[in-house]
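Hi,

I'm pasting everything inline rather than attaching a file, because the server keeps stripping attachments. The sequence lines come first, and each chain or strand is labelled.
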Amino acid sequence: MEQKQLKDFDINKVRADFPILKREVNGKPLVYLDNGATTQKSQSVIDAITHYYSEMNSNVHRGVHYLSQISTDAFEVTRRSIQAFINAKYEHEIIITTGTTHSINIIATCFGKVNIAAGDEIIISAMEHHSNIVPWQMICEDKGALLKVIPMNDKGELDIEAYKALFSEKTKIASFTYVSNSLGTINPVKEMIRIAHEHHVPVLLDAAQAIQHVKIDVQDLDVDFLAFSGHKMYGPTGIGVLYGKEDALNAIPPYQGGGDMIKEVTFEKTTYNELPFKFEAGTPNIEAGICLNAAIEYINAIGLEQIAVYEEELLNYATEQLATVPGIRFIGTAAHKSSVISFLIDGTHPYDVGVILDKLGIAVRTGHHCAQPVMDRFGIPGTIRASFALYNTKEEVDALVTGLRRAVNMLV
Amino acid sequence: MTINEIQDELMDDFSFFTDWMEKYEYIIQLGKELPLISEEHKKDDYIIKGCQSKVWLFPEVKDGKVYFTADSDAIITKGLVSLMVKVLSGHTAKEIVDADLYFINQIGLNEHLSPTRANGLLSMVKQMKLYALALQARG
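And the predicted assembly:
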């Protein structure tokens, strides 16, 4: 196998691009390891936001006037940029939403409305975020359908044989995550999609924790629907993406009614607009939509392959170093992992550890990570989660390890 | 001692600490002095749910005064609970309801009382006052 190498990745230059990384918290340099929750923004994204409000602000898709045209153009540039980023066949397969949760709800609701009936089955996995559980439970409740859950082993890997056995003639859709937000597991999604398609079952992939770490090619994956958020890929909050194959999106009704999503409205009958606008009712988050492009350009300039190599090196280093902390127990030890390390320390509560790390300027997440069934699976109330991004360093990993040792000294 | 005298004493104790570590070590120590809730009361009826750490709190009236026993699964939270119990336990329901807990700000623990913190401390203070209010009404 060809040795992956870092060519032009200059971590100091990358860090200089993110102004917040220079600040202190509680008198200590900020060590931001909560990237699974949200990522920081580059100066180019921040500048784009200022530029939008200083020079462009106007509503999109409606006006004849100059500002409306330039903001509409910029909004559509983002759509094409996303199309290229995930290699979608058509730009109208890219629906701009408010985030992953919104995207999943669109599919659960609209696909469910026309395709799911009493007694039908929906497959999800045991490691889903609540936002890929609850929308499906809601449609199940509404229609009298059943949720089938792919189990996982003690390492936090899905049981693919059990997954195969879940399919029946009643299975209507499968929805699972690419990368687990609580365990870091990278699922074999290409294989899983192929299996679903053998049963003529479409797949929705939750890529919220994958899009910033793993190169995604929707045509190569042959995935039917894909959901992700802008703010986890260095972009603004309140913006996200629903990708769907053209035919699949055309086959389901719109989600919300309102402006932009209509072709013609009379009081007797309304006809709906074409893709993508059919799913984009109302004024979108224009600023975030436009400025997401700056984040995508930032990622593209470094290259996702480079980022993946750097982050993998960092993850391996962090896993090795953390293993030296007395009493540490990793939750999620899958063979293929992305930039998330979840753990517990014997004799401590995650909350206590989080409080002490915060005093040391280290930001981690503690708790159930909106994945309570995962915590139940491991019989724990929650974990401490360190999640990495392209700007994190080995020195920050060292600071985390030192912080944890201090926490252990105080708490145990 | 009155509620305010106890608050003043605690403020005096905390004024000796020069850094956050000493302060938190003291809080952890206080957790060990917390009058623990009995096992029979350590159930869902007496739980105050924060997002992450659990707190159990049980009120009792003896000779016209309200006494609290409590516990938490997180030890910093337990220390904070202990502080509150130290201040409010052993006073009349009216004194508890009327108490102005100024010491929290003074010793720099106000961050723990923000509704965005996941430790349930704010709910705990509210619950202590609610218990006292109910006992006062029963009165």
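The mean pLDDT of chain B is 88.

If the labels don't parse on your end, tell me and I'll reformat.
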